[in-house]
């Protein structure tokens, strides 16, 4: 798994990084820490000949070091998948009947990159995710009705609406004791089921899986498919509560349950949830909910 963690210099980003650290311990994921800084006035237009290249904000660079150390601090140095490269001399065959001693670097098992990009934050996050081949984008945000970044506005909502990969939006200092999952039982991917499993393990949380129904026939069909998902989790010593909710009342149900620690929605291509909860409603959910939100794709 490749995780892109987009951060600024506010406490909600610090909190998001701490949550990613716990996930990294469980998954040994490849990680990219992405810091954003605005374009300077001179950088926004065409740079004159001989102009000095824009500089990285020193405070942002220092913050990135702090974030990196916070994640690496969760691992023992000797066993860390992100341990630094070690160099040593080795005698290697170069040609037939010829060996040469060379200085060889033993690389880390997993990538850990620190990147700073300048420009429109939502656009730069999406560009880095595409470049990196990210499976998961993580952003923190303020609690409250806007779920915004302090200096940048509604960046988390834009990423949730436009990202091609899974997005995890973490509300600042929100404890997670229960995870509510609204799944499209016909199409939900194995990767999404595994991600939910990782979240349950990370937080030692209760899991509530919502099956979407409409009419008796669909209800029976859903129950059969949910049974397979139930057995998948039981085989991993996770014992979820199954709850059936009519499609027509899903939005009301989610609004009522918005105080959960983590709301998980499977929003993959052709998902039923995409029809019931179009982007404008998902954006409103992210903004208004006290819960952190995980949009699986």
Q: What are the main properties of this structure?
A:
Rossmann fold, 297 residues, 27% strand, alpha/beta, ten-stranded mixed sheet
Describe the 3D structure.
It is a single chain. By secondary structure, the protein is an alpha/beta fold. It folds into 2 domains: 1-40 and 56-81 and 110-173, HUPs (Rossmann fold), CATH 3.40.50.620; 174-297, 3-Layer(aba) Sandwich (Rossmann fold), CATH 3.40.50. Helices cover 37% and strands 27% of the residues. The chain contains 10 helices and 12 strands. It has helices spanning 11-27, 41-44, 58-72, 121-132, 155-162, 190-203, 216-234, 250-256, 272-276, 279-288; strands spanning 2-7, 30-37, 86-95, 98-106, 112-118, 136-141, 166-171, 178-182, 206-213, 241-246, 262-266, 292-296. A 10-stranded mixed β-sheet has the order 5-2-1-6-7-12-11-8-9-10, sandwiched between helices. Strands 3-4 form a two-stranded antiparallel sheet. Helix 1 (11-27) runs parallel beside helix 3 (58-72), helix 1 packs across helix 6 and helix 5 runs antiparallel to helix 10 (279-288). It starts with a strand and ends with a strand. Residues 41-45 have low confidence and may be disordered.
């Amino acid at each position: 798994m490749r995780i892109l963690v987009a951060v600024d210099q506010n406490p909600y980003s610090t909190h998001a990084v701490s949550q990613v650290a716990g996930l990294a311990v469980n998954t040994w994921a490849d990680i990219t820490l992405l810091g954003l800084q605005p374009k300077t006035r001179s950088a926004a237009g065409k740079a004159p000949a001989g102009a000095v290249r824009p500089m990285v904000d020193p405070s942002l660079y220092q913050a990135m070091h702090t974030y990196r150390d916070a994640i690496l601090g969760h691992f023992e140095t000797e066993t860390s998948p992100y341990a630094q490269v070690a160099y040593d001399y080795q005698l290697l065959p170069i040609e037939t009947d010829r060996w040469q001693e060379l200085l060889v670097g033993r690389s880390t098992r997993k990538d850990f990159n620190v990147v700073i990009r300048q420009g429109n934050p939502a656009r730069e996050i999406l560009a880095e995710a595409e470049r990196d081949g990210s499976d998961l984008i993580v952003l923190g945000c303020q609690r409250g009705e806007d779920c915004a970044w302090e200096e940048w506005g509604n960046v988390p909502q834009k990423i949730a609406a436009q990202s091609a990969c899974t997005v995890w939006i973490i509300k600042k200092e929100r404890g997670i004791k229960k995870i509510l999952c609204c799944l499209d039982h016909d199409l939900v991917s194995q990767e999404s089921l595994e991600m939910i499993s990782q979240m349950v393990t990370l937080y030692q949380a209760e899991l509530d899986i919502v099956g979407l129904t409409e009419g008796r026939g669909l209800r029976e069909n859903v129950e059969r498919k949910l049974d397979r998902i139930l057995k998948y989790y039981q085989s991993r010593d996770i014992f979820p509560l199954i709850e059936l909710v009519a499609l027509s009342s899903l939005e009301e149900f989610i609004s009522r349950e918005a105080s959960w620690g983590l709301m998980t929605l499977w929003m993959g291509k052709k998902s039923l949830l995409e029809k019931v909860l179009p982007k404008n409603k998902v954006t409103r959910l992210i903004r208004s909910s006290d819960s952190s939100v995980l949009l699986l794709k």
